[in-house]
Amino acid sequence: MAAELGLPDRLVRSWLRWAPTGTAVGSGAPALAVPTPPAAPARRVGPSPAEQAAEIGRLRREVERLRMERDILKRAALIFGQATDRR
């Protein structure tokens, strides 16, 4: 068939490998199974290590700020609680 079309044999064979399964058109012979292309490398899902490190740093600073605010509010509650007891 390749010679009739003036094509290299290997080109026709590669077409047949990629042809849908079933019967090859006009040949009466079953077509070759479609090879599964190689799987793409797994993509990283989520942030990169550098992004994770930046997020951890930001969260640590936020925790420190929240602890400071909590301590200030605790002291304020004690002070205001003492002030209301005096009245």
Automatic annotation (TrEMBL):
Matches recorded under InterPro entries: Homeodomain-like_sf
The source's domain of life comes to Bacteria
Q: Tell me the SUPFAM superfamilies matching this sequence.
A: Homeodomain-like
Which named protein is this?
Answer: Transposase
